[in-house]
Design brief:
The chain is built from four helices and five strands. The protein has a five-stranded mixed beta sheet with strand order 1-2-3-4-5, with helices on both faces. The protein has one domain: Gcn5-related N-acetyltransferase (GNAT) (Aminopeptidase), CATH 3.40.630.30. It is an alpha+beta fold.
Length: 149
């Protein structure tokens, strides 16, 4: 049985391991030192919420990281579901769904107006999963990105 719970600093080493795997999945170079600093800051400053999936043998096998933002037109908090990752050997067991359901509960608990996320068009699994969990594909708006690099 997989348990979903909020991560704390005591989980840092294990969350960093998963976070580094997540970044490598998205074709970034492994950098556990910077990942440790980044996740430690998020947990210490509490400027994101991280839920972890804990397996029955007490291993952390997945995580979701959410950032609070605000919708001016709705005048409410909105959560950005920025990171979702499940370790390879635990995929296909419904863990992503459990993590997303926890994100939805956070949205309700904080009286937020919703969750938003983006994923690559090539993310076949994610693009099939999100609509099944009630997410709608936004075809009305363009997404723009500016990169200082």
């Amino acid at each position: 049985m997989t348990k979903i719970r909020k991560a704390s600093l005591k989980d840092l080493t294990f969350v960093v391991k998963l976070f580094d795997q997540y970044r490598v999945f998205y074709e970034k170079e492994s950098d556990k030192e910077k990942a440790t600093e980044f996740i430690s800051e998020r947990l210490t400053l509490k400027d994101s919420v991280i839920y972890v999936a804990e397996s029955s043998d007490n291993n952390l096998v997945g995580f979701v990281q959410l950032y609070p933002i605000f919708s001016s037109t709705r005048m409410q908090r909105l959560w950005l579901l920025n990171d979702l990752f499940v370790a390879n050997e635990y995929r296909g067991k419904g863990i992503s769904k459990l993590l997303i359901e926890s994100a939805k509960e956070l949205c309700i608990e904080t009286n937020a107006c919703g969750l938003i996320l983006e994923t690559a068009k090539t993310n076949i699994v994610g693009n099939h999963l999100y609509p099944k969990l009630g997410f709608l594909l936004d075809t009305d708006h363009n997404y723009y990105f500016w990169d200082k690099n």
